[in-house]
Amino acid sequence: MRYTIVPVTHFEQNCTLLWCETSRQAAVVDPGGDVDQILAALDREQLTPVLILVTHGHIDHAGGVAELAERLGVPVEGPGEADRFWIEGMAEQSRMFGFPPCRSFVPSRWLQDGDRVRFGEVELEVLHCPGHTPGHVVFHDRPGRLVVVGDVLFKGSVGRTDFPQGSHADLMRSIKEKLFALGDEVDFIPGHGPMSTLGEECHHNPFVGGRYG
To answer: Which helix (H) or strand (E) element contains residue 71?
Structure first.
C-alpha cells in the first residue's frame, strides 16, 4: 500500500489517500473539505477512488464526505455509530467553526472494533479508539506497519477530550492499550501535523510516555 497526505481546510487536517499499488484503487480517509483539491490529488496520482473512510465525525475530518461521495459515487465506511450525533450536527458544526455550509451523511457502514475495510488488494484492520469522540476509529495496515489515527494521537501531543462525549480516560486507554500494542516500529499518520512512530510517542510523548507509562 502507498499513501499521500493532502492537508485540507483552515485546520490543516491531514486527509490521506491510501492506494493499492497493483490495482491503483484508492480510499480517501477523512475528506474534511477542499473537495476539488482532493480530486486533483487523485487525478495527479492516477488513482481510482472506490471508498471513503472516516475516523470520526468532527467537521474538519468529515465536512467534505457528502459532497465527495456524491461526486465520486463511492460508499462511505466509518466512523463508529456513537459519532452519529456529530455527523447529524454537521450544519451546526460549520457555523461554530467557521466552515462553509456542508451536509451530513449516513455511512454505508458504521464501523466497529475488529472490522476490516478493503480496496484493491489492501485490507485494513479497524480499531475502535474512543476518547476524542465516542465513535472514533483508526485504520491499521499491518503488513505496511502503518496506522491512520485521526485525532487520537499526535507527534508530541494527544487529542482533545473537552468536546461533548469526550473522555480523557478513554483516550489514554485507546492510546496505551490499542495503539501502543501495535508495536514501536509502526508509523502513524495523525489528523494534524507531522507523522511519527508509536515507539517515539510511547517513550517520549509527555502526555502518554514516561509520565503515564
So the answer is: helix 65-72
171 lies in some domain: yes
Which residues share a beta bridge with 18? 3, 27
Q: What is the pLDDT of residues 15-24, one digit of tens each?
A: 999 999 999 9
Residue 180 CA to residue 175 CA, distance in Å, equals: 6
Residue 210 has pLDDT above 80, yes or no: no
User: Angle at CA 189, nearest 5°, toward 195 and 199?
Assistant: 65
> Cα separation of 56 and 84, whole Å?
9
Task: Evaluate whether residue 33 is within a structural domain.
Answer: yes
User: Number of folded domains in the chain?
Assistant: 1
CATH code for the domain in which residue 90 is found? 3.60.15.10
Residue 101 is given by DSSP the state: P
Q: Summarize pLDDT for 114-150 with one digit per residue, the tens.
A: 999 999 999 999 999 999 999 999 999 999 999 999 9
- Identify any residues that bridge with 189 across adjacent strands, giving them in sequence order: 148
Residue-range definition of the domain harbouring residue 114: 2-204
CB atoms inside a 10 Å sphere around CB 3 = 18
Q: How far is CA 61 from the centre of its chain?
A: 7
